[in-house]
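Dig into these lines:

——
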Amino acid sequence: DALPICAHSMAGLQELCAGLPLTPLPENRGRSGGVPHAPARSPRLSAEERRLALQNALRYFPPALHTVLAPEFADELKQFGHIYMYRFCPQIEMRAFPIHEYPCKTKQAAAIMHMIMNNLDPAVAQFPQELVTYGGNGQVFSNWAQFWLVMHYLSQMTEDQTLVMYSGHPLGVFPSHRNAPRAVITNGMVIPNYSSREDYEKRFAMGVTMYGQMTAGSYCYIGPQGIVHGTVLTVLNAGRRYLGLDNLAGKVFVTSGLGGMSGAQAKAAVIVGCVGVIAEVDKAALLKRHKQGWLMEITDSLDHCVHQIREAKKNKTVLSLGYHGNVVDLWERLVSEYEATGDLLADLGSDQTSCHNPFSGGYYPVQLSFEESNQLLATNPERFCELVKESLRRQVAAINTLSEKGLFFWDYGNAFLLEAKRAGAEVMKSGGGTEFRYPSYVQHIMGDIFSLGFGPFRWVCTSGDPQDLATTDQIAASELENIISQGVDNAVLQQYNDNIRWIREAGRHDLVVGSQARILYSDQKGRVRIAVAINRAVADGQLKAPVVISRDHHDVSGTDSPYRETSNIYDGSAFCADMAVQNFVGDSFRGATWVALHNGGGVGWGEVINGGFGLVLDGSEEAEERARMMLGWDVSNGVARRCWSGNRNAYETICRTMAEDNQLKVTLPYQVEDEAILEEALQKK
């Protein structure tokens, strides 16, 4: 007789935790059909480097198996530019199982397993067999041997041990203590002079480093929902800033990308009530978002796109329309429509292609189809690179034309403007300066939110029960409303009202993909209150299992990135990474269950340092204490840094926080009141 589903899954998880399956070796099925796959990479290894890559892969296995494995690993390296070890891709259903089903000695380790398997769930992951969660190359692990070893270590470890992760590789489980993190993760930590894109491609192929994006390599991705709230706030505040409107009915937002985090754009457009038109070259990504209910309609016809835009604008109807095609064609068609009719059909615009990775499948050139592009990328990467640059120049030219007629465009922190500049596109302000003609969304929209201490807080109900998620939604809304009732500064009142509206409506927007998770922008006070209330709900049985709290690395304190998170830092320190590194270290000894520090994420390898954490709320008094201590630091660190850089919002925010906590003492800056003094002093001989 068939076993109950729970028994099936538990038997599979027991097998998964037993270590690498070597006797017998699993069948080599190669790449599976029916799931999207990462484009082949072109790392340009020397003969000695290819030999080293193969040798590095084989060290996970006893010599008796090398005769079998060496040829197939060498073939993977040749075909795909990396050794993923497809033979060891597990046959178990990959998803976030309820925490009690994991055969672990500690709930903290089981929670990490829950999060890892969610990152690799085919409903969540962009390229599940290549262990890529999102962003085109955001890896959870570098190969499947690492996955098996990590699951085994987590199942065996106790609260007196810490798992150490080196760029996907489990270095081992080391003695520590119960208040230490259960896992410490670093991804892509290389010597700065060797952090070029070419260096990365080689070292990833050799299996010695990894691009963890942000929440891929830290195991904290929660599907496209993870950026929906931020995208809602971005579009909403863009409407307020650029159009002077709170109501975006009949306004058109044109953008691109539906693969990973960019998939949030369609849902965000519906939530804010505008017309969202999103171009995507990969049909599988479009169909995935349509099946999930995030896209209302799909078309491959530009004529149909234009017709639907005109109808939705006229009738002020809400629409999320996925265009199966290249966004450059869409922008150029909108230019043609304006030239023919005088109608500006786009009010707001952005781009969420994976431009941090433009020459390895993150951006597809308009001159070729999706299939032709992948073929050229594998056979002639130099020519592919040339076409990408030409395509970027064409895209910018169209956007420039429309922006002169009233379109408001912003960079979404995906390195679009940076790569367009490198391609020779006209993206710089006139006058020969170093400033882009279009703002980063952090500069004009999200930067103020970060400086007030608000950012993408999130939690995951490890029971896997939707009712637990609904309960946490209610808890969060009640806590925010209580804070308002006790009085909040006018500077943050609108943020609180926006966030209460979000959490009250979240349940009906069908946001969950994968784990039972929620995203909610919140400040330090809100995060602490919500975490404490959730922990107490676990303790008294309102919630059936522990809850993991976390955040996107794209937050107040988590990321140093001069073209995104710190693009509104103007004291010269935007290129410094002390904040993100200090955050990682500070979280680790203040109570985080696991911490991660990454090179790369969002705008690309070598362009950013970022970190994150996970903290398990198990209902204990210790968990409450950890949450209070760690969340306070996790927000105030970044607010204090932004204050020191001269940001007035951050200055006022950190002063309010110090007034509420007499243990917090922050160095405050004095402002130069008369700037003429500077010029006079510098002109003196």
About this structure: Confidence is low (pLDDT under 50) at residues 1-5. The first strand starts at residue 132 and ends at 134.
